[in-house]
Amino acid sequence: MIPYSFLSRFVATALLALVAAGSASLVLAQAQKADPRDAATIQDCLKQNAGEGPRDKVCIGLIAEACVKEPKHESAAAAVTCHVRERLVWDDIVVKTFEQLRLKVDDMQWVKLRDMQRKWNEGLKQTCEFYWEFSRGTAASPLSEACYRRETARRAIYLLYFLDNTGKR
Fold first, then answer.
1. Which residues contact 140 (CB under 8 A, 6 or more apart)?
2. CB 91 within 8 A of CB 152
3. Which of 156, 46, 41, 27 is nearest to 94 (CA)?
4. Can you say whether residue 61 is alpha, beta or left, with left for phi > 0 and alpha for psi between -120 and 50 degrees?
5. To the nearest 10°, the Cα dihedral for 27, 157, 65, 58?
6. Of 14, 51, 160, 163, which is least surrounded by CB within 10 A?
7. Quick one: CA dihedral 62, 65, 67, 70, positive or negative?
8. CA 106 to CA 87: how far, in whole Å?
9. Residue 84 pLDDT > 70, yes or no?
C-alpha cells in the first residue's frame, strides 16, 4: 500500500498539473470562486436528478443559458462571463469528486483514474481551443468558453457516477 503522505503530495501535484495544463482562461477561472448561489442551484439540480436521471440534459447550462439570455449579456465578453460563472461551479465539483474518489478506490484504480483525468484535461484543451482555430473572430471566445463549461460539466457528472456507485460494486 502507498503511504497516505505520499498520496497527499501526489494528489496535490497532480491537481496542480491539471490546472497548469489548461488554457489561460482555465487558470484565470481557477483563481476565481464560484458564486455560492450558483453552486447551490446546480447541486440541487444534481440531487433532484440523481441516479440514472437526466443530469446532463437538465443541469448543464442551468446558470449560463439563463445568464446569456439577459439583455445585459448580449456582447461576446459578457457571454464569456456567463459561461465562466457556471464553469466555476462544475470545476469545483470535478475537483471535489476527484478528491473523494481518490479515497474510495484502490491503488490500481487510483493510478488509472489519475491518468484518465490528465488525458481528459489535455483533450478538453484541444477540443475547446479548436473554436479559436475554426472561428477566428469574436464568436470564438464565447464558443470556446461554452465548450469548457459544457465539457467540464459532463466530466463532473461522469465522475459523480463513479462516486455514487463506489459502494455498490
1. 131, 132, 134
2. yes
3. 156
4. left
5. -170
6. 51
7. negative
8. 29
9. yes
Q: In the Cβ-directed half-sphere of 21, how many Cα atoms lie within 13 Å?
A: 16
Q: What is the DSSP letter of 167?
A: G
Cα-only R_g, the chain: 17
Q: What is the Cα–Cα distance from 107 to 155, expressed in whole angstroms?
A: 21
pTM reported for the whole predicted model: 0.78
Residue 101 neighbours by CB distance under 10 Å: 19
Cβ 129 vs Cβ 21: under 8 Å = no
- 21 and 13 in contact (C-beta within 8 Å)? no
The pLDDT-based confidence of 136 (bands split at 50, 70, 90) is: confident
